[in-house]
């Protein structure tokens, strides 16, 4: 797969720690609480430990989400006030990663199912005009002044309406926040320097871990997913090549604490914890990204999201 070239070229980066990052700022844009913990959590914890200011902006409250952890069914408050519970979970996850967090304040669109699919709730995030949906993020970019912005690719990482809209507003904010003639009244213009897409579900990563597990005589939790990648039954997977791998091996436990903070959404012994961290540190100790645009010179492949900015 396309990631194999990058894998062999940056293997030496696995043992590196990130350089001191004081004075640098990073903004990750996500659709729902828990997305930040399943996509790039170890990377954010690593940069926070290196001194960078790391912020997550969550577009919606996740109020349309289901209870995905059966144990949470027993918590009365979960049934009475799921949005409130998810806000508390998000605060706990941010604390686990040592990052800051803001809500953009939109209503969760839900994931429509059926044939034909039902319309999205009126006024929900994914139904809004782009300029209306992007305005709070443009304001945040101009206030926080990030050097680097991260979000999902064109299909949202997977085709949830809120993930796709998160992609759209991120690209729009990256494009427009530095232009004082656009979105007037939302603060002094600030131009972010680099835009990345997350590749948390990089097929090359799954294949490398799967093969290593099989070679070591273990069962692999990735076999079904890899078969679906190969037979095309996951048609929404984009072909972006990984350009940037961030060494995160010493921060996998931070990721785990953040994931487990989202008790309503993540089973404590579920898929995310199926492979021991010690094994991951040996096989694939990176978080993977695609550099989509850079306004500074940088050399690929990278092992630092702030490459070219130091």
UniProtKB/TrEMBL annotation:
Catalytic reaction list: mycothiol S-conjugate + H2O = an N-acetyl-L-cysteine-S-conjugate + 1D-myo-inositol 2-amino-2-deoxy-alpha-D-glucopyranoside
Molecular-function annotations in GO: hydrolase activity, acting on carbon-nitrogen (but not peptide) bonds, in linear amides; zinc ion binding
InterPro entries linked to this entry: GlcNAc_PI_deacetylase-related (IPR003737), LmbE-like_dom_sf (IPR024078), Mca (IPR017811)
Keyword field contains Metal-binding: yes
Note on cofactor: Binds 1 zinc ion per subunit.
Protein name per UniProt: Mycothiol S-conjugate amidase
Entry keyword annotation includes Hydrolase: yes
Names of required cofactors: Zn(2+)
Subunit structure as annotated in this protein's UniProt entry: Monomer.
Gene3D superfamilies per record: LmbE-like
One BP annotation, GO: mycothiol-dependent detoxification
Function comment: A mycothiol (MSH, N-acetylcysteinyl-glucosaminyl-inositol) S-conjugate amidase, it recycles conjugated MSH to the N-acetyl cysteine conjugate (AcCys S-conjugate, a mercapturic acid) and the MSH precursor. Involved in MSH-dependent detoxification of a number of alkylating agents and antibiotics.
Keyword annotations from UniProtKB, A to Z: Hydrolase, Metal-binding, Zinc
């Amino acid at each position: 797969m396309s990631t194999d070239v990058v894998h062999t070229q940056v293997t030496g980066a696995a043992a590196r720690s990130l350089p001191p990052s004081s004075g640098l700022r990073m903004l990750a844009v996500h659709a729902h609480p828990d997305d930040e913990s399943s996509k790039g959590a170890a990377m954010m914890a690593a940069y926070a430990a290196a001194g960078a200011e790391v912020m997550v902006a969550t577009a919606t409250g996740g109020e349309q989400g289901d209870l995905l952890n059966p144990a949470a069914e027993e918590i009365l408050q979960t049934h009475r006030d799921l949005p409130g519970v998810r806000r508390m979970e998000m605060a706990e996850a941010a604390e686990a990663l040592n990052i800051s967090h803001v809500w953009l304040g939109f209503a969760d669109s839900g994931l429509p199912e059926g044939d034909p699919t039902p319309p999205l709730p009126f006024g929900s995030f994914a139904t809004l005009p782009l300029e209306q949906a992007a305005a709070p993020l443009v304001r945040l970019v101009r206030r926080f002044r990030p050097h680097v912005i991260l979000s999902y690719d064109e299909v949202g990482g997977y085709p949830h309406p809120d993930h796709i809209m998160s992609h759209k507003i991120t690209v729009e904010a990256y494009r427009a926040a530095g232009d004082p003639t656009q979105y007037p009244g939302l603060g002094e213009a600030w131009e972010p320097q680099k835009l990345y897409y997350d590749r948390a579900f990089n097929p090359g990563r799954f294949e490398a871990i799967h093969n290593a597990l099989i070679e070591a005589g273990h069962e692999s939790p990735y076999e079904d997913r890899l078969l679906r990648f190969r037979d095309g039954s996951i048609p929404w997977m984009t072909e972006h090549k990984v350009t940037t791998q961030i060494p995160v091996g010493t921060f996998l436990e931070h990721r785990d604490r953040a994931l487990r903070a989202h008790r309503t959404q993540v089973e404590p012994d579920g898929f995310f914890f199926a492979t021991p961290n010690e094994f991951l540190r040996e096989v694939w100790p990176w978080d993977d990204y695609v550099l989509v645009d850079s306004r500074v010179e940088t050399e690929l492949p990278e092992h630092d999201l702030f490459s070219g900015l130091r």
